[in-house]
Amino acid sequence: MPARSITTARQERLGAELRKLRERALPTIREASEATGIAQTKMSMMETGRVGVSAERVRYLAGEYACDDAAFVDALAAMATERLRGWWEEYREALPPGFLDLAELEHHSRYLRSFESVHIPGLLQTEEQVRAIYGTSVSGLPEEQLDTRVRFRLRRQAVLDRAEPFHYTVVIHEAALRVRVADRKVARRQLLHIVEQSERPQVVVRVVPFDVDGFTRIGNPMLLAGGPVPRLDTVLLDTAHGGTFMDAEAQLGRYRRVLDDVERAALGPVESRDFIHRLAQRV
Q: CA of 26: how far to CAs of 20, 64, 65, 268, in Å?
């Protein structure tokens, strides 16, 4: 099988999980190659997502590595058998890979938890808000490229319409709610849109007001995407240099605790809805 010229974050994650399993059992690729009969070069490429791996091989490797977590192995095998070319692949030549990786991450998640301290979360943005953000944040962006980014972000929001059980919980700091990326009318419609979306059963919006005492969690926005098993959760940090995916056990534990902290500091869902509605009336 030829090596992939482009790897997605999800393909790399499958390879990384195989590497973690191998390292717990056989520290070097040479040892693993001798034990499994798989060439070192091919094993290395599997562990970086550069070549595909079948579900049967995933199960074989899990057995050789003495992994007895059946649910985890089943989840890895399911990742290996995916042949879906999601809607985001239509944008492969038009947008940076990080855009597509985020859409794929959201698509496969069981739930999403996020914290936004600077911007309205993309899944809750109106078209006017999206257009204003890209129109001002990316200098010299051609109109065609602007339209493409707007369409892409709005298509991502379809994840909230999924039929299967799915929950999106977002904590938004008051600072993000008060930032005007356009004029008052756009700001008001954006706030009222959040109120409307928060009334959906699968969406929970909570607000951290300015006057909360002792709140020290202002920092990079973050997203936790729940995988089929907790070991396959993913954290995405939004930094000035782009999105950073994190999946190490210690990292996942740390950012779960951060999200727990901000949720404890936030108003309840009903109080938050009333809070945002009052802000909209005052814009």
A: 10, 9, 7, 48
Q: CB-based burial of residue 13 (10 Å sphere; 0-12 exposed, 13-18 middle, 19+ buried)?
A: buried
CA 118 to chain centre: 17
Whether the Cβ atoms of residue 119 and residue 221 lie closer than 8 Å to each other: yes
If we measure between CA atoms, which residue out of 28, 25, 83 comes closest to residue 54? Answer: 83
* pLDDT digits 0-9 by tens, 168-184: 999 999 999 999 999 99
Q: Give 191's contacts (C-beta < 8 A, 6+ positions apart).
A: 177, 276, 277, 279, 280, 283
Residue with tokens 């056989």, as numbered in its chain = 26
In this structure, what token pair is assigned to residue 23?
Answer: 């390292």
Per-residue pLDDT tens digits for 182-192: 999 999 999 99
What does the alpha-carbon distance between residue 102 and residue 97 come to, in Å, rounded to a whole number? 9
Tens digits of per-residue pLDDT, 255-265? 999 999 999 99
Residues 14, 77: Cα–Cα separation, whole Å:
9
Q: How far apart are CA 98 and CA 82, in angstroms?
A: 20
CB 280 within 8 A of CB 191: yes
